[in-house]
Design a protein that fits this description.
By secondary structure, the chain is of the alpha+beta class. The chain has 4 helices and 8 strands. Helices cover 27% and strands 25% of the residues. Strands 1, 2, 3, 4, 7 and 8 form a 6-stranded antiparallel sheet that branches. A two-stranded antiparallel ribbon has the order 5-6.
């Protein structure tokens, strides 16, 4: 069985989102921690690596790989469950090619926020407990309401198993992708999440098949239902 499925959606920012960019040069008065931007348009982006890394981490944590690991730590990548490795890839102990490809996500509703802008500067203040000295800093965040065009490509190619086993494996993969998206909506993306930043929501999720054989096309209606559940599975309803 073979095919590619594009998982297209819009990632809506619910609370200010900070994914850090380069702060190599900071003139006096500049923001201490800017967001990452597309160098061509100077608009903020969500790197595919940020989305992939967070979804993988949350999925691994949900599997509770080994009870011997403390809650604050995760096992080595080579000890991830097979379900995670085949989705996100692995280099150890053997090379496993990732079935998922994450594209960088670009702003898709700039016109709606013309009067507000795409980012804000949030002042934060760190106070040293031993002497009460304040250390103010400026954090740039993407404002609530900004939407990013997310595109995740899933590729399935497995001729070594029966059609029924291939269907079961494909369905399990999609269940885990949907699970990771749900977990992200209950967690946060980017930095400063424990202080309220980075809450996001997936909207308008669509599965767009390409070069799929008949067996895979038959599964698409059921697979679409998995992702419709994601859209209503969020921490904040804004």
């Amino acid at each position: 069985m073979y095919g590619k499925i594009m998982i297209a959606s819009k990632l809506k920012v619910l609370t200010g989102l900070h994914i850090g960019g380069s702060g190599t040069f900071s003139p006096i008065g500049a923001v201490d921690s800017p967001v990452i931007r597309d160098p061509f348009t100077n608009k903020p982006i969500v790197p595919g690596s940020s989305l992939k890394g967070k979804m993988r981490t949350l999925l691994v944590r949900s599997f509770k790989v080994a009870k011997s690991f403390p809650e604050t730590n995760l096992p080595d990548f080579k000890d991830d469950p097979d379900e995670v490795k085949r989705l996100f890839g692995s280099t150890k102990p053997a090379m496993i090619r990732s079935r998922l490809q994450f594209a960088d996500a670009f702003v898709c509703n700039e016109a709606e926020l013309a009067d507000v802008g795409l980012t804000e500067v949030k002042w934060e203040n760190y106070i040293q407990r031993n002497n009460a000295v304040a250390n103010p800093r400026q954090i740039e965040r993407v404002v609530s309401g900004v939407k990013f065009e997310v595109k995740i490509t899933y590729e399935y190619a497995n001729e070594s198993v029966s059609v029924e086993d291939a269907k079961a494996e494909l369905t399990k993969d999609m269940e885990n992708i949907a699970k990771a998206m749900k977990l992200l909506q209950l967690d946060y993306l980017g930095g400063h999440g424990t202080r309220g930043s980075g809450r996001v929501s997936f909207e308008e999720i669509q599965l767009q098949p390409s070069f799929c054989d008949d067996e895979m096309n038959i599964l698409l209606p059921e697979l679409n239902k998995l992702f419709k559940d994601v859209e209503s599975y969020e921490l904040l309803h804004i």
